[in-house]
Each structure stands twice: as C-alpha cells, then as structure tokens.
Amino acid sequence: MSTDDESGTTEIPSYCGHCGLPAHTPDAHGVDSDHDDSNGGCSTRLAMEPPRYCSQCRRRMKVQVDPFGWSAACSRHGTVTQ
Amino acid sequence: MTRTVSTDQTTALTGIGAAPILDQARDRVLHRGLGLTQEQILQILELPDALLPAALELAHDVRLKYCGESVEVEGIISVKTGGCPEDCHFCSQSGLFESPVRAVWLDIPGLVQAAQETAATGATEFCIVAAVRGPDLKLMNQIKFAIERINRVVEINIACSLGMLTQRQVDQLAEWGVHRYNHNLETARSFFPEVVTTHDYDERLDTCRMVKDAGMELCCGALIGMGESNAQRAELAAQLAALDPHEVPLNFLNPRPGTPLAGQSIMSGRDALRAIAAFRLAMPRTVLRFGGGRELTLGDLGTREGLLGGINAVIVGNYLTTLGRPATADLDLLVELNMPIRELQKSL
Ligand code: SF4
Ligand SMILES: [Zn+2]
Ligand SMILES: [Zn+2]
User: Fold this and answer.
1) Which residues surround ligand 3, an ion (CB under 5 A)?
2) B342 part of a folded domain
3) How far is the CA of A19 from the centre of ligand 2 (A)?
4) How many other C-beta atoms are found inside a 10 Å radius of the C-beta of residue B321?
5) B313 near B74, Cβ under 8 Å?
6) What is the 3-state secondary structure (H, E, C) of B264-316?
7) Is residue B58 part of a domain?
8) Is residue B59 part of a domain?
9) CATH number at residue B263
C-alpha cells in the first residue's frame, strides 16, 4: 500500500477505514465499545475491500476498484493505492 | 477429471440411501440434456448434507459433458461507481442509502489499462459496468470511445452492464461490437418486490429479451442469500432457464453497510454449494460463473468445490466495489484442477 499523504508522515489511524468509527487503538477492532464489530469484523472486512473512510479525518473517500488494485482518495489527506 | 459416482456408491458413501431426485437428474440432465423442472430444482436445494457431494459430482459431470473442461475467465471494471437512482436493497451503489460508497467515474485510459491487465491473465472477457438505471448519452459516448480504444490495443471480448436499455441503445451496442450484455434478474419474480421498488421485473426481462434478439450474448445472473426461500431460489433458477441466457453469474449476498440488507446473515457454504449444483442441473449448457460473494460465503475450499460442482467460469481479480481473491490463487487452482482457460473466440 502506498500513500501520497501531503504531510509525508505515518499517523496512527484515528478512524476505522471500514466503518468510520473512532479506532482508539490501532487494533481496536472488536474491543472498542464505540465500534460495532458484530458483522464479521472490520479488520477482516478491510482485507476483502478497500477502505471507505479516511483513517485520519473520517471523510468518505472516492474509491476506484480496478481488477487488480484500488485507490482511495481523501480530499484533504491524499490518495492511498494498492 | 470426470468423477462419476454411481447410485450404489452414493448409497454406500452416505449410508442413508440416495434420493430419487439424483437418479431422476442423472437421467433427465446428464443423459438427455434437459434442465430440471422447478419442482426438481427445489428437491436439489433441499437435499440433506450427506447427499450434497453426490449432487455436486453429478453437476460436475453435466458441466463436463455439455460445456467441456475449460473455464471462462473474465475481468470486470466499474466505469461509473455509486450514485445510482435505483433502490436495489442489496446494493452499496444506490444513492438512496447511507452507504459509504461515493460516486466516481473512471476515465478511458483507466479502462484501457484494466482491459490490458485483464487480458494478461489469459481472460477472454472484459465487462464494463456502470451503476445507472440505464445509460444516458454521455455514458453511451464514453462506452463507444472505450470500445474503440480497447479494441486498438488488446484482443479481448468486451461485455457491458449498463442497466436497462432502449431498443436504440441495444442496437448501438450490438453495432459497436459488444459481445455480451449483462443484466441480472437477481431474484425470483415473487421475491423481487421485497428487494427492488424503483423498477419491476418485467422491465428487466424486456432488456434481456432485446439483447438476445439483437444477437448479443445475454449474461443474466442471480443474487442469492437475500432472505428468499428455497422455493423462490428454485423459481429463480427456472425463470433463468426459461430465458436461456448464454451466461449466468451466481452471486452470493455480501451484506453491505448502509443498505437495507446490511443485517442479513451470510448464507451457509453448504447452501451456496447446493445452489451451484441446482443451477447447473437447471441449465446444463450455460456458462455458470462464480460471481461476487464467494470469498465470504465459500472461502478457498468452496471455490474448489464449486469448480468441481458445476461452475465453469470465474471473475478474476476484484469486483466492482469489493476485492476478490488474488488472481494467481484462482489461476493456480485451475492449473491444479487441470482445467484449461477457455480461449478467445471472437464470435461477433
Ligand atoms: S440498478 Fe444496479 S447499481 Fe443501481 S442500485 Fe440496482 S444493482 Fe445497484
Ligand atoms: Zn470499523
Ligand atoms: Zn482525510
């Protein structure tokens, strides 16, 4: 995965890329009471689909899925690709 | 690769006696080449677990006899994602739900690149999909341009899925060389109003019939696991069989956040396999493709079982909004199963 984040820094995710809820720790999925993980687990889901929410600001991203990759763009924090 | 299990063997394997429906299916479908009736399809869908392997074996034998060993490989790409005005309750691309999917358009270079990457896997089909009720002039022009550009640089059959069409649009797509058109029935007529209210079943059928009449191959699929009954699943298979599509993509619901079906539980792998066998026995000659949701419903083992149970086509790589297995996982499996990739035939 690569990013063209304007700041060039790697930040600890503040929000879950799948559901957009606060992710208080990097592996909060399933233990964070804010975070409904009842439908299969967000981290599992993120292995099967691209993130929809920017992990830094929770904006919904513009996501393009290609046959062999994807890109997800936040208007503020740049584009993540895989 | 043919693995025929006789009725006697089946009885010995299960210890509970083979169901008469399997003998009937062997005679009607394997020997006579006729699809099962709706009532018989339902009996396959309701087979006990112990008889599922025998049903899959029979479906595989039917596939080998009427379709051969090869597997058709396809790549799909979304040219316009999200923001659809329709309300299909399973779909994350409807603009009417609180889905996190935002509207995005892909440009022509992106489409050409996706077609080239798809062809590089050995795939012979490339399907361009748009989340629309039906195409407007802008989309039709983009499709025309994309087809010209793709045909210039890569040898691959181009299919489209652009929603409901007018007769003029059908004629234009055929004229531009679109090889196959996808328009799904999705579910049984009796269940359709539970999952779509912005258009009706007959509108879908109209497009399907126009596509066939224009000489394009019809790809018409199913989405199962939305809460329909087994009887409705059988009804769907019979309705598809009556339409006689060239291809049937079989999708399994992947409940999408924000959609009315977000809370639907994921269907069991065994029920998914029963459906694969039943659909093959309903349509012995169709291209029966693994559509979306198989990763979630069936996992790696289920992919193998499906390919040995009636499936003879796969989508390689990712879907429209979700990710598929790595392409190499599917291609390696085909090699291991000694199933060659179907070669390109420019039929139109
Ligand atoms: S018409 Fe197609 S894209 Fe639109 S909501 Fe229905 S399934 Fe989704
Ligand atoms: Zn989450
Ligand atoms: Zn952001």
Assistant:
1) A 54, 56-57, 59, 74, 76-77
2) no
3) 4
4) 26
5) yes
6) CCCCCHHHHHHHHHHHHHHCCCCEEEECCCHHHHCHHHHHHHHHCCCCCEEEC
7) no
8) no
9) 3.20.20.70
In sequence order, the 6+-apart residues with CB closer than 8 A to the CB of B304 are B333, B337
Q: Please report the DSSP string for A20-78 in residue order.
A: --B-SSTT-TTT-TTS--TTS-HHHHHHHS---B-TTT-PBPEEEEETTEEEEEETTTE
| Contact call for B78 and A19, based on CB within 8 A | no
- Bridge partners (DSSP) listed for residue B315: B74
3-state class percentages of chain B: helix first, strand second, coil last, to nearest 5: 45, 15, 40
Q: Cβ contacts (< 8 Å) between B266 and chain A: which residues?
A: 40
In which residue ranges of chain B is pLDDT below 50?
1-15, 347-348
Give the residue carrying structure tokens 């497009």.
B207
- Which residue's alpha carbon is nearest to atom 2 within ligand 1? B131
CA–CA dist B107, B19 (Å, integer): 54
User: Range of B113's domain?
Assistant: 66-336
Q: Which protein residues touch ligand 1 with a CB less than 6 Å away?
A: B 84, 86, 88, 91, 93-94, 131, 163
* Total structural domains within chain B: 1
CB contact under 8 A, A65 and B319: yes
Q: Which residue bears the tokens 């003998």?
A: B23
pTM over 0.95: no
Ranking A28-37, A66-75, B48-57, B163-172 by mean pLDDT, the lowest is: A28-37
B316 to chain A: closest CA residue: A67
CB contact under 8 A, B296 and A63: no
Ligand 1 mean position to A53 CA, how many Å? Answer: 22
pLDDT tens digits, residue range B130-167?
999 999 999 999 999 999 999 999 999 999 999 999 99
Contacts of A49 in chain B (CB under 8 A): 321-323
Closest to A67 measured CA to CA, from B33, B111, B71, B307: B111
Residue B142 located in a structural domain: yes
